[in-house]
Amino acid sequence: MLKIFKYLKPKEWTLIVASIVFIVGQVYLDLKLPDYMSKITTLVQTEGSKTSEVWAAGGMMLLCALGSMILAVIVGYFAARVATSLSKELRKGVFDKTLSFSMEEINGFSIASLITRSTNDITQIQQTVAMGLQVMIKAPILAVWAILKITGKSWEWSAATGIAVIVLLIMIGNLIIFVLPKFKVVQKLTDNLNRVAREGLTGLRVVHAYNAQEYQEEKFEQVNKNLTDTNLLVNRLMAIMQPGMGLIMSGLTLSIYWIGAHLINNAGGMDRIGLFSDMVVFSSYAMQVVMAFMLLSMTFILLPRAAVSAARINEVLDTPQTIIDGEIQSSPKGIEGEIELRNVSFKYPDAEDYVLKDISFTAHKGETVALIGSTGSGKSTLINLIPRFYDSTEGEVLVDGINVKEYAQEALHNKLGYVSQKVVLFSGTVKSNVTYGDNGQTPSTDEEIKKAVEIAQGKEFVENMDGEYEAAIAQGGTNLSGGQKQRLSIARAVNRNPEIFIFDDSFSALDYKTDRQLRSTLKKETKGATSLIVAQRIGTIKDADKIIVLDEGKIVGMGKHSELLKTCKTYQEIAYSQLSKEELENE
Fold first, then answer.
1. What crossing angle do the helices spanning 270-317 and 51-100 adopt, rounded to 10°?
2. Residue 473 C-alpha from the chain's centroid
3. N or C: which end of the chain has fewer CB within 10 A?
4. Are residue 43 and residue 96 in the same domain, yes or no?
5. Spatial distance between the Cα atoms of 9 and 488, rounded to a whole number of angstroms
């Protein structure tokens, strides 16, 4: 929990110091009240006392109470400022850290868990800091000061107060022992609830299409019930605190007055007035002591959950990055658009088997190199090594003659136009999606944007939309068809004007006619750029300069379409499964 405070700025630390000063003043004023109460009690019981003296003491009590209230408001304001500033920095830190993650780190946390950590967990810490600055600092000061005030009044009263405090501490300790593990469970169950809710909402079309509403409801109901039951158990245990503390305070008050009655009864003369005054004062101070421990108990309610949340946030912030930035900002002159893999092997973290084994090939500037193979053969994994979504386990991946690990990631990514297997569009407009990101070049003009959309065969449908290039795109592109989304994502890559295009099965949603037109226009308009294409359809890749056939992570064939039809059995099987023998012979 303490590690979280390193994200506070000097301004917040200044507010914390000021809060401590004001809290000391607040405690001083609170503890002056019983002194004036004692004075009033003595004046009321002493013959010849003036009413003006009672009013003066009462006025001072009122001023102390008013001053304490003003200081409490100031401390509350400072605490709220510190807590909100800390939560802001933590959210920013978690979001920035998440954006810097490679696929390996992202896979270590579920999306639902990252959302919970950046919302629910940080809110827990914010509430604890806001309460803690007012309570955790005040409670020990109040307890120690009040105990010093009552020391020497009467050992009987002191013993009664001590017993009350011990009982209170035992109750709080037992609750913490039983409740703390449950807080960890609650946060994990919250992650699970978010995961199931997100899954159901994301796949809403499929849920409706398969009449699976009842199944999803039952699934959600189960995780919701688990979270509810655990929360109820925690809250029931915590609910014991309030009546338990009330019982302890009432019992202590009764003990003080019972002991006081015996002491006064056994005393004589003027001693009785002094004892009665001491009893009233001691009762007030004893309540302050118990109140201090009650304030601490409030912290103990919040602190365990906040500690769990802090550990979860620190887990994200302290996660070491596996993809470390290099220093090279640009490749040597004369080498552009060349990709080379030298004896590359790769396996996922904690996996036993290699996904890719001893892969070697070169794609020269301007070439179109295609990758094909059965599902699970390692095509997409191989493609992901070039932009360093993962780093190769063995061997080297070179772009323009330089190992990708030596590039600054920004410089490497500026060389690439990447179109992912799963199309990703962002809420905004057609224009904002096509010009998305920084490509290290001058901002695109309207003509360049239109040109990119035209190359991607999207001009017709875009110009038929309301607003054309300013037409609204929903989150995830849900207001577009699969083919339209795919063409806009290709236009986004074209607009970057990169050295290298990477198409990870990016033509699958296009009809054959559009596919052919797009590839023809792309080759003509982006002449000089290198293209890597992952595809399942023979028709998409048969015109490639080089086709690499993968099977179980190994290269089993490399060459042109006509060559592979004669020499590669795996390629023949794929080809004959899609096209007839006559069609292949005619080609």
1. 10
2. 26
3. C
4. yes
5. 43
Residues 47 and 112 in one domain: yes
Give yes or no for a contact between 310 and 319, defined as CB atoms under 8 angstroms apart: no
Residue 586: its pLDDT value, please? 56
Which pLDDT score, from 0 to 100, does residue 476 have? 78
How far is 157 from 260, CA to CA, in rounded Å? 8
**Residue 308 included in any domain:** yes
pLDDT digits (tens, 9 = 90+) for 522-566: 778 777 888 888 888 787 787 888 888 888 888 888 888 888 888
* Structural domain includes residue 437: no
Question: If we measure between CA atoms, which residue out of 299, 358, 300 comes closest to residue 130?
Answer: 299
Kindly state whether residue 332 falls inside one of the protein's structural domains: no
Residue 137 backbone phi and psi in degrees, to 5 = -80, -40
- 3-state secondary structure (DSSP) of residue 346: strand
The residues near 293 (Cβ < 8 Å, ≥ 6 apart) are 139, 143, 165, 168, 169, 172
Contacts of 13 (CB under 8 A, 6+ apart): none
Query: What mean pLDDT is reported for the chain?
Result: 81
Among residues 249, 400, 429, 230, the alpha carbon closest in space to that of 332 is found at: 400
- Identify the DSSP state of 332: P
Are 277 and 357 part of one and the same domain?
no
Reduced to 3 states (helix: H, G, I; strand: E, B; else coil), residue 401 is coil
User: C-alpha distances in angstroms, 168 versus 131, 135, 183, 296, 305?
Assistant: 20, 17, 22, 11, 21
Q: Do 164 and 66 share a structural domain? A: yes
HSE-up of 288 (CA within 13 Å, CB side)?
Answer: 27
- Number of helical H runs and strand E runs in the chain: 22, 12
CB 541 within 8 A of CB 533: yes
DSSP type of residue 547: E
Output the domain CATH number for residue 531: 3.40.50.300
The string of pLDDT tens digits covering residues 51-71 is 787 788 888 888 988 988 898
Residues 211 and 248 in one domain: yes
Q: Which amino acid is residue 62, in one-letter code?
A: L
What DSSP assignment string belongs to 312-368? HHHHHHTPPPSS---SB-SPPTT--S-EEEEEEEE--TT-SS-SEEEEEEEE-TT-E
Residues 236 and 368 in one domain: no
Residue 121 DSSP code = I
* 3-state SS string for 48-65: CCCHHHHHHHHHHHHHHH
**What's the total number of domains in the chain?**
2
Q: Which domain holds residue 107?
A: 2-317
Under a CB-based contact definition with an 8 Å cutoff, are residues 263 and 155 in contact? Answer: no
Q: How many residues does the chain have?
A: 587
In this structure, the number of other CB atoms found within 10 A of the CB of residue 174 comes to 12
Whether 455 is in a domain gets the answer: no
402: three-class secondary structure by DSSP: strand
Pairing of strands 394-399, 339-346: antiparallel
| CATH number of residue 38's parent domain | 1.20.1560.10
Q: Provide the β-strand partners of residue 441.
A: none
Looking at the fold, whether 234 and 371 belong to one and the same domain comes out as: no
Could you report the per-residue pLDDT of 156-173, keeping only the tens digit for each? 777 777 787 788 778 777
